[in-house]
Amino acid sequence: MAEYSIINKNRVVHYIHTLKYDKVKIKMIPDTLKNHTRLALEQATVKILTNQGGFKGTGFFINPDGYILTAWHCLVPDINCGATITVETIEGDTFTAQLDKKKSVEDWDIAVLKIDNTTEHCVPLGLITEENRGDEVIAIGYPASYIEGRGIGVYDGIINQLLKLEQTDIDAFETTAIEGPGQSGGLIYHFATQRLIGLAKEIYFNEITKTTGLAVRFESLFEKWPQAINPSRLLGRTI
């Protein structure tokens, strides 16, 4: 049995194709919505570079004021040596960025950058719960961008499980949408909430879980920087 529903949220029309098999319900995001979302997320994604190490990883705009998130480990050790940080958009525009240590959460691998420009290409942050296990997500980033000819990548996946990392107590989740080095610091977008729910941290390097990676959730960032939460903005209105 198939059901089709149209949900209108803040002028963004979502087409969700729901298949029911007995008591199991599987939601599939149609290609039209995925394509719209992909293009919007690519516009919000940037390369992270320094004048000492070149390409360092991926980042993304989270509000119109020019704030960017990336992974703290992408900037080390360059930031300890006074390196200049540059971000590059998908159109090739470059901007000098400053590290905002007061808003960053180093222990959770979250770095907050700021450029002196505004942007229309940004996506708000959000949170997930155990109820979101199995939900579809999309990740955007530059895996292996240090290899000539490799551009931005788009990776579909699901939320495998929520977990707290041992020793660090970082709230994270496993996802199949993280592919490899260079994607660190990139965004994980959750279709159900229309929010960015994680920052790509690392991929497992073993045969059993080699297609699974870890993403950091934003609880600690919201606690340290409450203004990072903007409940009024959805993807379709922000970009």
Can you tell me the number of structural domains?
A: 3
CATH class of the largest domain, please? Mainly Beta
What fraction, in percent, of the residue positions are helical? 10-25%
Shape: globular
Termini distance? 35 Å
Main β-sheet, spatial strand arrangement: 4-5-6-9-8-7
Strand content: 35-45%
CATH domain fold name of the largest domain:
Thrombin, subunit H
| Global Rg | 17 Å
The CATH superfamily of the largest domain is Trypsin-like serine proteases
Largest sheet: 6 strands, antiparallel, barrel
Mean pLDDT: 82
Order of helices and strands: EEEHEEEHEEEEEEEEEHH
What attributes characterize this protein structure?
Thrombin, subunit H, globular, 15 strands, mainly beta, disordered N terminus, single chain
List the helices and strands and how they pair.
Elements: E1 2-9, E2 12-21, E3 24-28, H1 31-44, E4 45-50, E5 54-61, E6 67-71, H2 72-75, E7 85-89, E8 94-99, E9 110-115, E10 136-141, E11 153-164, E12 171-175, E13 187-190, E14 195-203, E15 213-216, H3 219-224, H4 235-238
Antiparallel strand pairs: 1-2, 2-3, 4-5, 4-7, 5-6, 6-9, 7-8, 8-9, 10-11, 10-13, 11-12, 12-15, 13-14, 14-15
Structure description:
The chain has 239 residues and is mainly β. The protein has 3 domains: 2-31, no CATH class; 43-122, Trypsin-like serine proteases (Thrombin, subunit H); 130-223, Trypsin-like serine proteases (Thrombin, subunit H, Beta Barrel). 12% of the residues lie in helices and 41% in strands. The chain has 4 helices and 15 strands. The protein has helices at 31-44, 72-75, 219-224, 235-238, and strands at 2-9, 12-21, 24-28, 45-50, 54-61, 67-71, 85-89, 94-99, 110-115, 136-141, 153-164, 171-175, 187-190, 195-203, 213-216. The strands form 3 sheets. The chain has a 6-stranded antiparallel barrel. A 6-stranded antiparallel barrel has the order 10-11-12-15-14-13. A hairpin with a 4-residue loop joins strand 7 and strand 8. The longest helix is centred in the N-terminal third of the chain and has 14 residues, at 31-44. It is globular. The protein starts with a strand and ends with a helix.
